[in-house]
């Protein structure tokens, strides 16, 4: 088969047009928008789950701090024979005893812990105001195993 000069340019033009149509492998705007929407939904699910995990970690940390302060209150009672009037008494105990805590621990939301003397099974309760910083709301954090009052 012999090619002449006059038929070669026409044939090359047709071949290159077909080749360019077959090699255009991009994404349409609609496809890109669908991918972005799916990624947005996935990001929302991940962030929502992580926020719950962070909140649970803060609650657990606060409960650990409360348990530590409860032990200091019990030690105070053992040495002084009465419970403190406030948590600040743990830093300045009477009778020349050394402080039971170096500084007042705060909860994970940077609020002071609440000390409340009670007359129930437990003679005192230590709790946190929780994320909202308000006493007496449903998000207050109590020690593990303690029912809310």
Summarize the structure.
Helices cover 46% and strands 5% of the residues.
Describe the structure.
The protein has 149 residues and is mainly α. It has a domain at 29-70 and 104-149. It is 46% helix and 5% strand. The chain contains 2 helices and 2 strands, in the order H-H-E-E. The chain has helices spanning 7-23, 29-80, and strands at residues 114-117, 124-127. Strands 1-2 form a two-stranded antiparallel sheet. Strand 1 and strand 2 form a beta hairpin. The longest helix is centred in the middle third of the chain and has 52 residues, at 29-80. The mean pLDDT is 83.
- What is the total tally of β strands? 2
Query: Structural class, judged by helices and strands?
Result: mainly alpha
Order of helices and strands: HHEE
Supply the number of helical segments: 2
If you compute it from the alpha carbons, what radius of gyration comes out, rounded to the nearest whole angstrom?
35 Å
Helix content: 40-55%
Low-confidence stretches: none
What is the CA-CA span between the terminal residues? 99 Å
Overall morphology: rod-shaped
Mean pLDDT: 83
- Bin the strand percentage: 5-15%
Largest sheet: 2 strands, antiparallel
């Amino acid at each position: 088969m012999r090619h002449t000069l006059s038929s070669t340019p026409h044939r090359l033009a047709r071949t290159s047009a077909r080749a360019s149509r077959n090699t255009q492998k991009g994404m349409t705007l609609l496809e890109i928008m669908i991918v972005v929407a799916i990624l947005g939904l996935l990001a929302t699910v991940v962030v929502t789950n992580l926020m719950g995990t962070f909140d649970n970690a803060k609650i657990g940390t606060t409960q650990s701090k409360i348990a530590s302060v409860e032990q200091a209150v019990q030690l105070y009672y053992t040495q002084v024979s009465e419970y403190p009037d406030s948590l600040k008494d743990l830093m300045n105990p009477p009778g020349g005893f050394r402080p039971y805590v170096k500084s007042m621990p705060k909860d994970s939301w940077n609020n002071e812990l609440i000390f409340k003397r009670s007359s129930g099974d437990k003679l005192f309760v230590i709790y946190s105001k929780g994320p909202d910083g308000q006493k007496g709301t449903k998000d207050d954090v109590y020690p593990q195993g303690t029912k809310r009052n």
